[in-house]
Amino acid sequence: MNTVQADDRIVQFGAHHDHFASWIFNGAVGELRGTFGIHIACIAASHGLDIEDDLASILPIASDDD
Question: What one-character DSSP code corresponds to residue 18?
């Protein structure tokens, strides 16, 4: 969130294709998805919850080492 809020142009032009702000905005959204994915996976695993496919797309891939 700090990255996106650092420059008003990122919020204003983040959805514009080929604008520098879209690279910054999309990177920040990717970091946010990664963070939420890890936390959602931990909550679901600790409580034995099933996760719908659309939401499961942001979860980290299970390791074969487990």
Answer: T
- Is the pTM higher than 0.90? The answer reads no
Copy the structure tokens of residue 26. Answer: 């999309």
Provide the pLDDT confidence category of residue 39 given band limits of 50, 70 and 90.
very high
**Contact, 22 vs 13, CB < 8 A?**
yes
Residue burial 48-63, b: 16+ Cβ < 10 Å; e: rest = eeeeeeeeeebbeeee
Q: How far is CA 38 from CA 14, 18, 46, 62, in A?
A: 25, 30, 12, 11
